[in-house]
Amino acid sequence: MKKITIAIDGFSSTGKSTVAKQLAAYLGYIYVDTGAMYRAVTLFALREGCMKNAVLESKKLIDRLEEIKLEFKIELGQNNALIYLNGENVEKEIRSMDVSQWVSHVAELSEVRKKLVELQQQMGKNKGVVMDGRDIGTVVFPEAELKIFMTADAKERAQRRFLEFQEKGKSVSFEEIYANVTERDRIDTTRADSPLIKADDAIEIDNTQTNREDQFHTVLQLAKDRIAGRV
Q1: Domains and CATH numbers, the chain
Q2: 161-180: per-residue pLDDT in tens?
């Protein structure tokens, strides 16, 4: 059976990673969470004091990019690869609200994007990969056989994240999360380098009213059609 490249782009909190993991597991493909890569760089920046007086000191971070080593590893008892920053498992740390508030600012930097895009292209050079992010179908793999663009109402996305934080016992208000979601949307869609846009040949899926199971089966059928050469 031939292998293809599957690119899943879209707004934050649309469930890109969830459906990408499901699809990769079903197909036996490699899954790459590019958002985790940007979050790991953001965590490095926070730890190393690259944010001062609520401003990202871009040059300070850019000058230290060579110090950042990112890897995905599968740990015992885990089905999905976890992100490692300089040898440390930071999967939990990168999901914090602090990282969420800064990640779009870090992702704006052309130097950061260049470094990570090169890594992503290397990871998917042999196909058989499902990769999700903001610019996978437009920049990382413009020739991907299947491109999906996911969207949902901003309030619905904020509500999903709010419930996730509540389940984890984190004290964050809905208003804070909604503000973060809409600000990230603004930055992601207006940045000069590789903005979040739907590729011309991408299939848009609005999952505002869709449950995860139905969404997975829709995406899986699209993948099966591409693999079989029916589209």
Answers
A1: 5-32+97-221 (3.40.50.300)
A2: 999 889 888 888 999 999 99
